[in-house]
Write a structure and sequence with these properties.
binds 2-acetamido-2-deoxy-beta-D-glucopyranose; Transferase(Phosphotransferase), domain 1; 21 helices; membrane; six-stranded parallel beta sheet; Leucine-rich repeat, LRR (right-handed beta-alpha superhelix)
Length: 734
């Protein structure tokens, strides 16, 4: 009786976990978190008090969620009343929250982006008129699945982070009616699938975004009502798919490139209210589809090209407010255009008297003056540069150069130069972890009795590991690496410094390092010694093999490691993603706390990986690339479920036996008896479900570590609840 009802419960549960269409619990959690961060807008109330539990199938005129495979792919929230157009509420904004217009002081754009990045399948994001304020943080690059983003009518300000252009899948971007007041990244051409870019009603400054060799997908470009200046780049005349271009209400100057008018698909061209000057060529060609042209309120002179004349064509052309020679009663006197156009460069007096304009004395004077200005400017900037470099900015600059020089083996240069801890990590309590320091080779030699054989405790693809004892009695582990000479010592040191910043309670602590020139040197490599705390209570692999760990202990250890890896992925920008995760590398200290070792080494040891690749052939290298951290952690989860014997039959197991988890009987055959005896079936099911997801073929479709961690903690909770009636469980905090 009891047994059969147990089966029934179990079957229901596993059915529930594997086959229903309900939104993923972790995704729902993210949405509720989002509601909190947006400070509980009324239009999201129905997320909590609607009886239907599945947010994927709830929508309202102002809120719409679309899901695929139970993951949120589209999220749209509009803050204004449905049948009204949003309006810019305020015309000025000084970067501080405004009551009843913006979200409160508590709102953080950084946290909002972090939360959104947990919607790992999100393709379309629309958050319009919700009072969102702040600067777009660098970590916006985490939203790399996005194809469409609309954050219009909010209170975003500042510049655009360069990382924005790494959102390579973007197709449409709408940031109208915000308060952006810096420059726009000039490598927009990286967004190779971009069709629509709309930045209307902001305060963007500087030149128009350069769109060199944009792969001709751009169709709609709206930049009106900003403070863009300079000329329209000639390359805009090569945007072969462009249909609509609105550059009105800026401070653009010069003559627009004539090819702009003859683009094959252009229908709408609006250049009104700028400072454009000069004469449009009379033989200007207009594209067949060009229907609307607005060049009014500029400083154009001369005649109107015949293809822009209203009488002859079916075009709607506006040209009032220039100094053209047609329809003169709506034009300004030519002095208006000449003065305004030239007044900046030449003394106005000379404009009034054309005879003087070519006066060589004045010309020479102007040129001399210009040269003098230039000299002063150059000298000035040299002095400023000197100052800056003295103040210590020189190191990253130097580094950047070096990384470029060694780009063959280099990490992407941005990684080193822009790497920095994100705020959560900075807040992380790392108290008690000793400071990173330099060790002398002498010190290490003493600690290991001159690297005596008996102190050798491991040897892997990354080099030998020795155990040592420092003078003060501290036990240490020393990893000896041979690192390519392609890095200069300085570059290497910066890499090591970056490694030293990876500090987390669940990471084996890197105490310091030593770059030796005393040790024998074979010419094209450097000897590097990494000094770690010695973690002495065995590793997870051997504990699993010893069949002693109960299910709750396994969950506790796994949660700790998942936290550490989550930190490696997101605690530093850009993250460390290849951490050679395996059960052997999870060490336990005397209080049973899990600490991950062997992490982050790809930053100095990538050569080793490449050699491996050569040896094992291209195919297996590709396989390895498929095996990212999530995949490898999935394998550790699997070992936790079925015991480490599975390790020897890795691929075979995955193909043939993952399916065995589906039914209770088969599960009994496969799952480690210790686990079966100490786990609740519900808790087990949670882990089985997340384990499967880690093995999904496409690495991008795999869960994030935040997801993995959530499942681990959820499984631990379920386990604790199941045990509570019998015994009081204290979940160990990790
Ligand atoms: C929905 O929930 C909110 C807050 O949770 C509450 O203020 C509101 O009255 C509820 N609305 C309905 C229709 O139940
Ligand atoms: C729940 O949502 C559905 C679909 O949007 C809606 O028709 C229904 O009225 C809502 N129920 C409540 C109690 O809000
Ligand atoms: C929600 O979005 C889907 C997909 O874009 C669309 O089919 C549906 O009509 C939208 N519903 C509302 C209420 O906007
Ligand atoms: C942009 O606006 C913010 C908020 O008003 C201000 O603090 C910042 O100095 C401005 N930046 C520039 C480049 O004008
Ligand atoms: C901001 O957060 C603090 C602390 O969490 C809270 O006491 C305060 O009420 C919040 N303010 C607003 C406007 O939500
Ligand atoms: C750009 O679009 C093409 C065609 O839709 C697609 O195959 C490609 O993956 C997209 N590129 C990116 C970076 O998303
Ligand atoms: C050009 O843009 C301005 C401002 O957006 C608008 O007022 C004007 O009507 C546009 N011109 C045409 C011909 O559409």
């Amino acid at each position: 009786m009891a047994v059969s009802s147990f089966y029934l419960l179990f079957l229901t549960l596993s059915w529930g976990l594997f086959f229903t269409n309900a939104i993923q619990p972790s995704q729902k959690q993210v949405l509720l978190q989002l509601r909190k961060q947006l400070e509980y807008p009324k239009q999201l109330d129905f997320w909590v008090n609607n009886t239907s539990d599945d947010l994927c199938y709830l929508s309202s005129p102002q809120v719409n969620i679309t899901c695929e495979n139970n993951y949120v792919t589209e999220l749209k929230i509009f803050g204004f009343v449905a049948d009204q157009q949003p309006k810019k509420m305020s015309s000025s904004f000084n970067g501080f929250p405004i009551p009843s217009q913006t979200l409160s002081q508590n709102f953080s754009m950084d946290s909002l982006i972090a939360t959104l990045s947990r919607l790992t399948s999100l393709k379309a994001l629309t958050l319009v008129s919700l009072g969102i304020w702040g600067q777009i943080p660098d970590k916006v690059q985490r939203l790399y699945t996005l194809k469409h983003i609309d954050l219009s009518y909010n209170y975003l300000y500042g510049s655009f982070p360069p990382t924005f252009t790494r959102l390579a899948s973007l197709e449409s971007v709408n940031l109208d009616a915000n308060f952006f007041n810096g420059t726009f990244p000039n490598d927009v051409n990286l967004l190779s699938n971009l069709t629509t870019l709309s930045l209307k009603e902001n305060g963007f400054t500087g030149q128009l975004p350069d769109l060199p060799n944009l792969p001709n997908t751009l169709m709609f470009l709206y930049l009106s009502k900003n403070l863009f200046s300079g000329q329209i780049p000639v390359k805009y005349g090569q945007l072969n798919h462009l249909q609509e271009l609105d550059l009105s209400f800026n401070s653009l100057s010069g003559v627009p490139p004539p090819s702009l008018f003859s683009l094959p698909y252009i229908t709408y061209l609006n250049l009104t209210s700028n400072k454009m000057t000069g004469q449009l060529p009379s033989h200007l060609q207009c594209g067949n589809k060009l229907a609307v042209v607005d060049i009014s309120l500029n400083r154009f002179m001369g005649g109107l090209p015949s293809c822009l004349s209203n009488e002859l064509n079916n075009r709607n052309v506006k040209f009032d407010g220039n100094c053209l020679m047609v329809d003169v009663k709506h034009q300004n006197p030519s002095s208006h255009c000449v003065e305004e156009a030239r007044g900046v460069e030449v003394d106005p007096k000379s404009v009034k008297d054309p005879g003087k304009r070519n006066n060589p004395v004045i010309l020479v004077g102007v040129i001399l003056g210009g040269v003098l200005c230039l000299v002063v400017l150059v000298l000035g900037s040299v002095v400023i540069c000197r100052r800056i470099s003295v103040r210590g900015l020189s190191e990253p600059k130097l580094l950047q150069k070096q990384v470029q020089d060694y780009s063959v083996t280099g990490y992407p240069s941005e990684l080193l130069t822009s790497a920095r801890l994100v705020s959560e990590a900075a807040k992380l309590d790392t108290g008690g972890i000793p400071v990173h320091r330099l060790f002398s080779f002498e010190e290490l030699r003493e600690a290991t009795r001159n690297f005596h054989r008996s102190t050798l405790i491991g040897e892997g693809s990354t080099g030998k590991i020795y155990k040592g004892k420092l003078e003060n009695g501290t036990d240490i582990a020393i990893r000896h690496l041979t690192v390519s000479k392609k890095y200069t010592i300085r570059n290497l040191k910066l890499r090591l410094d970056l490694l030293a910043r990876l500090r987390h309670p669940h990471l084996v602590c890197l105490l310091g390092h030593c770059i030796s020139n005393e040790a024998p040197n074979d010419g094209d490599s450097n000897k590097v010694y990494l000094v770690y705390e010695y973690v002495n209570n065995g590793n997870y692999h051997s504990l699993l093999a010893g069949n002693v760990l109960k299910w709750e202990d396994r969950l506790r250890i796994l949660s700790g490691v998942a936290k550490a890896v989550h930190f490696l992925h997101t605690g530093l920008i850009p993250g460390f993603f290849n951490n050679r995760l395996k059960a052997n590398n999870i060490l336990l200290n005397e209080s049973g706390m899990a600490k991950l070792s062997d992490y982050g080494l790809s930053i100095i040891a990538e050569d080793i990986k490449k050699e491996d690749a050569n040896r094992e052939g291209v195919e297996s290298w590709q396989m390895k690339n498929l095996e990212d951290d999530v995949y490898n952690f999935g394998f550790i989860l699997l070992e936790s479920l079925v015991g480490p014997s599975a390790a020897s039959r890795k691929d075979e197991f995955l193909v043939n036996e993952m399916a065995s988890f589906e039914t209770e009987d088969e599960r009994k055959k496969v799952v480690d008896p210790v686990v079966l005896a100490s786990s609740s079936p519900q808790s087990l099911s949670v882990i089985i479900s997340i384990t499967k997801k880690c093995f999904v073929g496409d690495s991008w479709a795999r869960p994030s570590f935040e997801d993995v961690l959530w499942h681990l903690q959820y499984a631990a909770q379920v386990q604790a609840n199941a045990q509570r009636p019998a015994e009081t469980v204290s979940l160990m905090k990790c």
